[in-house]
Amino acid sequence: MSSVLEAKKRNEFQRSAKTELRESGNFPAVVYGKEVESESVFVNEGDFFKVIKEVGRNGVISLAVDGKQHNVILHDYQQDPIKNYIVHADFLAVDLSSEMTSNVRVDLEGEAAGAKEGGVVQQPLFELSVTAKVSEFPESVAVDVSNLNIGDSLSISDIRNSQPFTINHEDDEVIVSVLAPRVEEASEETNQEASEAETETEAKAEQE
User: Fold this and answer.
1) How far is CA 146 from CA 112, 123, 152, in A?
2) Percent of the chain beyond pLDDT 90?
3) Which CATH superfamily is domain 100-184 in?
4) Pair 75, 108: CB distance under 8 Å
């Protein structure tokens, strides 16, 4: 079920109007889609963050523009890099039965067995491109790593069939792996350096 976000039509576009919006806790946005005429609106920032927290970055929002409801997703937004307030947002009107493709984060669950033995967990893929119905689009993909020992890895092929959506990656792409401890490697390098230093010292002593 989508969360409702109130929006109002925006009719003034001067710089002073934008400043006034900002000062009143709102920001400008636009809503558009195949069967929706592009419309400039403004949204309360506090309400916006509350709804995004409820539905997630790719979740469906019921955008109420002066009482008229639109099922939308947050297509894009710009955020001030210093003050972190929302500068502008784009809401895309969608058909809940249609499919969409977007990136979702990968959440590792559990502690790898190999990590308990000193292994190092490496995660090459932090996001996955997936395709799913708009109404069923996931916020993230959970990957259980608890059974991974040192030297083990999980690839796309290991999780593809257990997901109710399409993963747009090759089967052999590695999501996460557990590497052998780096302490041994560092120790070997230290011993090698010590050996080279000792050899150099002996050589100098012979020359003297």
Assistant:
1) 4, 14, 11
2) 61
3) Ribosomal protein L25, C-terminal domain (2.170.120.20)
4) no
